[in-house]
Amino acid sequence: MPRQRVQTFGVHAILIAYSAIALGPILLVVMNSFKARNAIFGAPLAPPSGQTFSLVGYAKVLSASHVGLYFSNSIVVTLVSMFLVLLFGAMAAWALTEYQFRGSTPLALFLAIGVMVPIRLGSVAILTMMRSAGLNDTLIALILVYVAQGLPMSIFILSEFIQQIPKDLRDAARCDGVPETRIFFEVIAPLLRPAIATVAVFTVVPIWNDLWFPLILTSSDSTHTITFGVQQFLGQYITDWNAVLAALSLAILPVIAIYVIFSRQLISGLTAGAVK
Amino acid sequence: MAEPASQVVVYMPRARFLGLMALFLGPAVAVYTALSIYPLLATMGLSAYSTDQTGGYHFVGLANFTTLFTDTDWSKPFWNALRNNVVFFLVHMAVQNPVGIALAGLLSLPGLKLKGLYRTIIFLPTMLSVVIVGFAWGLILSPLWGVAEGALKSVGLGSWFAPWLGLPSTALVTLALISVWQFIGIPLMLIYAALLNIPDELVDAARVDGLGHFRIFLHIKLPLVLPTIGLISILTFVGNFNAFDLIYSVKGALAGPNFAADILGTFFYRTFFGNQLQLGNPTMGAAVATTMFFIILAGVAAYLLLLQRRMNRYAF
Question: Minimal Cα–Cα distance from B316 to chain A, Å?
């Protein structure tokens, strides 16, 4: 069937072309970050070779900024926020889906407002609150805001997952007289592990990548996250192409590494619900 | 959503049940109310005040909004930012969503090889920080580096090149397209998931009737994923009218040249925090944020009324 062959070929041609568009800019930046200045400008599209290989940009970034500190700040903020978003989100989602009581529907709607309305719009008041609570310029301020930001979406996603858990499981546990709190923490919570990937894509990735709240709530070097730190660094060293490309690559590579390792889970998490 | 009331509720003593709900719901509701809902309401409240030199607050009613919409010093940049934001959104609707839907259609073709690899690659930019993406594209499009110019030259279109990010006439659309490049993964994945949800029997029946892949997609699959298209439209709307990071990192708070790339997010930031040209003004900043809230609310309400008449459980 030649017609089908042509069709398949065409489909792959389009997908390969778009993949090149998606990947090209990232490859270009990472590739050139390992080259000497002359080679960056002389032959931007050539991969680094024996003669053009250089780590001068990385040396500059590591000496001129606290990348290590920024990374650890980002990791602390992201992991603590993720843990709390998942824990509080799962508990709330469980309570709202499992126990129907007067007020559970209005409460669910109240929590759903945050799915659509960005928390950013409250920044003016958030800054005032953090200042008066003495939390300005601390990682705690960022974590609190990110937990509030992530909760509505995580409650929404986790509710969907909880509804798919067979009813028999908790009923069996109840017949055995297991207390309600233990049913949640020992029976339900472990079953929610597949949902972590979905929650991560929708709530954790935006936290790692956020520029707005670090810009507003943090001012000193010691509280910069990697996204904000790199942004500040790039602004200062914009004419030093080696340093700029190296800083960009340092921000890109860990994300790509984690993404590639978990991409199967992430993508199946994204399309979850489709595979029933 | 409506499930039969759990039997637990019936048998458990009322006080214990309340304690249990407080335990489960308390932390989430407390953090969310204190840091999301309260600041939003407080910001709206603040928009009805103004400050004087001594730092005292005075109630001024809707005066801040009158200033924002009609006083030339404020209204010119405001309407400019709103207009630009509409353009920014329309570019996403015209490019990001159709291309995302088309790619999802191709990826969901039965028996396609390398599907997983394509998905992983095309979704990759969505995972990166907007800041990183903005700077990377800034370098690529820079006439200093000449990568974009070189690429156009190699296909004989060298004369088309212009410093798009620097020209007032093209900066905004170029930034919108960079944003499209980054976020195309969202419509792609949501539509892809919805397409997988379509029962095989429907598609098989159409194939038996002799329809080709393209017509099956257009006449059978596409109408079935309309609710998801509505969902990605509203997600795009909320995301765009709240966008800030990309334009700030590529163009700075002034969103130049000559405010050509200014959108509501950058206008809000300048108003609230100040910049080289003006001092920060929290009460006017609150008025801008409140206006943005009502714009987003109008979008969401329109979506719920028009597109979501029949509440469809949306699948991710």
Answer: 5
